[in-house]
Amino acid sequence: MIDSTTEDPKPNPTLDEFAADVVAIARAGGDEHQVTDAIAARLKQLLRDGLELTPDQRRPDPDRYVMYPLFVAADGSLCIAAAVWDVGQSTPIHDHGTWGVIGILEGREHEDRYETASEGRPVRLGERVLNAGEVVVCCTHDHDVHAVACASDIPCVGIHVYGANIGELQRRSYDPITGSVRWFVSRWPSAAA
């Protein structure tokens, strides 16, 4: 089930089964809240069952947070990634352009949630800390802007499921002071491409 964009060519039956279930949930349809709720329930089960990733899929990049593709649908309609933040690393304020579900495999994640005002400047709505084993819907089209940081003394490793190929999707980051927007793509690491 895992396609050629993954770094590890060895099969991972637990991950393969999860990817097949995510594809089935997405194909079954429903609105994005129904889809993300069903995927979140399945991701909770995956984390409870003890998903194991290879050392390469958990490895932090010394310069920035990184997302490793674990599964990318051939049509680009969804993906599963291992997102890794080293101690002290964070993201800019950004959006996703699609729905997303995240679960924390290891470490702890701090999230600041935002909305964008009419002039574009992000307005902070609140924060939450996610511990290992916790799963949340991180983004839907009506709640899509946040910034994330490692909040533990070990790297934070999360499993992210998105309703698009996040390694190719055009997204926006927001300057917290001016509200200026910069378009970017969170490209997959070159070793995984």
Entry keywords:
193 residues; alpha+beta; 3 helices; 5-stranded antiparallel beta sheet; Jelly Rolls; globular; 3-stranded antiparallel beta sheet
Description:
Helices cover 20% and strands 36% of the residues. It has 193 residues and is an alpha+beta fold. Strands 1-2-9-4-7 form a five-stranded antiparallel β-sheet. It has a three-stranded antiparallel β-sheet with strand order 3-10-11, with no helix packed on it. The protein is globular and about 45 Å long. It is built from three helices and eleven strands; from the N terminus they run αααβββββββββββ. It has one domain: Jelly Rolls (Sandwich), CATH 2.60.120. The N terminus is likely disordered. A hairpin with a 6-residue loop joins strand 1 and strand 2.
What is the number of E strands?
11
Order of helices and strands: HHHEEEEEEEEEEE
CATH fold-type name: Jelly Rolls
Mean pLDDT: 91
**Number of discrete helical segments:** 3
> Ranges with pLDDT <50 over ≥5 residues?
1-8
When the domains are counted, the total is 1
Radius of gyration, CA atoms, in whole angstroms: 16 Å
Beta-sheet strand percentage? 35-45%
Strand order of the largest sheet: 1-2-9-4-7
